[in-house]
């Protein structure tokens, strides 16, 4: 079925076929499947700054070389924060999550790509049973109103009340739809297929990648989706069936180890601090239709309040040890020892809140 899904999407295509390649399971499986179709296969991956040996970027380069694909790396962010914000506003139309790699897609547009394949798939559910539907929602970035933190307090009170009520009502509808299924695995699958894919992932593909080239997502093939729906949910947990199938089709697939880091993360808090004055001058000059929702002085206060560094390598030995322990805690082995990790609601200072205040990316497609 995987082979047929790829073959249906490569039949009749002319010219190079480009694959967005990372170091994980999904895109490497698609790399193997596409290579077997004898297409003019080319790959690309994002990069940002110095690369660790097992970063996504380095792993993608090694995979491309192993399968004979011509590979290019594209800088995810080129250092102009305002240009990146403008691209997100113009291309995202306010209905997608913030795209960290908008600059890369701008560069790819100049390369005149015609067909891009991505490894988006629905062959996975969370490998551990979760009894609370809210935990499922948070895992798929469907967050409660409280995730806005102090940003909510800066919204105009009438708008805040309206937004909070509408937000809570929609979350209640999602919970009710999920709890129609008694099995937590099935709840996870329904939230992923009913919320995450259409309103978070695919809207991003359409608005950013889709403006560059025709997008192909073989793993979302209708026949595969129907087949998955008939499977006992535990078979999908942790991509068990998917990974076993890929390995049987190509026993050499995992000769290149899985990536351990992204290789293209940007410290957006540090960028906001670095470009703070330019952002103020550009965004707080004149009037906006949003002034009645969030006052310009509130935006200024948020910018002025940014003082600590964002994500990055911890400076002290203690911080590095804590990060290593945290990595183990979230690993399968760590969860076997300590039990499942409860999902955390992100802080308003994290990158997702570069989006417009009050817009939950996972629900914005509504």
Automatic annotation (TrEMBL):
Pfam families: Asn_synthase. SUPFAM superfamilies: Adenine nucleotide alpha hydrolases-like. Residues 329-366 are annotated as: Disordered. InterPro entries: Asn_synthase (IPR001962), Rossmann-like_a/b/a_fold (IPR014729). Residues 2-248 form the Asparagine synthetase domain. This is Asparagine synthetase domain-containing protein. It comes from Deinococcus aerolatus.
